């Protein structure tokens, strides 16, 4: 298994797709019931293969990831050949940007000395989807990129004002 098995809830949500997956392998509902009852290890393998297919599709389509902790916001743009990162770090441990109040503070105090902005770009390894999956396993979530684009635009404005 390349990624990880989908949770029971995810599998239930993807039940129609799983039925189609079994159908592509010419496994009928009756055969599936028989496999589950008499060959549970084969059933587990089928679920693992389906899980990998789902993950592969999701990771291929993902364009942005976010990982936000109390003092750090890591925003990733998943491009074709590389991952761009915008990292926002708050040096004041009393500020928790995962709360509504803490995030409001960050929005008002972006130029505060305790707030640091960093950017980085990293080329993918030989397995781009594996790289993306590692970030998800570390707590990142797939997003539409609103925060990444917000901070990216802010930094572009800052460069124009400063003559960069």
TrEMBL record:
<dbReference type="Pfam" id="PF20105">
    <property type="entry name" value="DUF6495"/>
</dbReference>
<protein>
    <recommendedName>
        <fullName>Histidyl-tRNA synthetase</fullName>
    </recommendedName>
</protein>
<dbReference type="InterPro" id="IPR045470">
    <property type="entry name" value="DUF6495"/>
</dbReference>
């Amino acid at each position: 298994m390349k990624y990880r098995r989908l949770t029971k809830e995810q599998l239930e949500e993807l039940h129609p797709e799983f039925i189609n997956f079994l159908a592509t392998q010419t496994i009928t509902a009756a055969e599936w019931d028989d496999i589950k009852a008499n060959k549970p290890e084969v059933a587990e393998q089928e679920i693992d293969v389906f899980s990998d297919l789902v993950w592969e599709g999701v990771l291929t389509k993902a364009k942005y990831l976010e990982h936000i902790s109390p003092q750090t916001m890591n925003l990733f743009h998943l491009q074709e050949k590389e991952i761009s990162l915008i990292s926002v770090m708050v040096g004041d441990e009393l500020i928790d940007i995962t709360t509504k109040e803490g995030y409001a503070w960050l929005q008002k105090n972006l130029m505060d000395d305790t707030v640091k902005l960093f950017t980085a770009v990293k080329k993918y390894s030989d397995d781009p989807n594996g790289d993306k999956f590692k970030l998800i396993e570390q707590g990142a979530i797939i997003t539409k990129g609103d925060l990444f684009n917000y901070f990216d635009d802010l930094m572009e404005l800052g460069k124009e004002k400063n003559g960069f």
